[in-house]
Amino acid sequence: xxxxxxxxxxxxxxxxxxxxxxxxxxxxxxxxxxxxxxxxxxxxxxxxxxxxxxxxxxxxxxxxxxxxxxxxxxxxxxxxxxxxxxxxxxxxxxxxxxxxxxxxxxxxxxxxxxxxxxxxxxxxxxxxxxxxxxxxxxxxxxxxxxxxxxxxxxxxxxxxxxxxxxxxxxxxxxxxxx
Length: 178
Prior knowledge:
- By secondary structure, the chain is α+β, with helices and mostly antiparallel strands.
- The protein has helices spanning 47-59, 63-67, 70-84, 91-94, 161-165, and strands at 8-9, 17-18, 22-24, 30-32, 34-36, 106-115, 123-131, 139-144, 148-153.
- Strands 1-2-5-6-7-8-9 form a seven-stranded mixed beta sheet. Strands 3-4 form a two-stranded antiparallel ribbon.
- The longest helix is centred in the middle third of the chain and has 15 residues, at 70-84.
């Protein structure tokens, strides 16, 4: 991260570098830390420039951009609820009329910037969240180059649906639209 922001190397993971909390326009300027993952300065000379550009792209996304993916966030919620059948605990989610209300149940925790370890090896910005319907695994929003949503899922460590499902990129609905 440029502009005189300092990164602190993580003790437990030497290839992770963490920022101070910064305002995230996508979440109404809520402050979150950003972790640059899988970065070894002595081996990767282009990562910081590419990660900075992805982060710049992501920080341009505003509440309107968030609301444009409300339907996908709501679908994730309903798909989960249909799979686990919680009964009465599901009611607040099932009665949402305006899909933008789903964001009242999503709580961002941190941002990770990393490159995909195989295939095209592009840079991705992953927004990790807790959510009220899936408390164990939470929720993640993944943006390729920080620009466009390419995955929404539980926090499973995969940047793309094709990686999680071991299928070709062109069969990944969101990724193939990038």
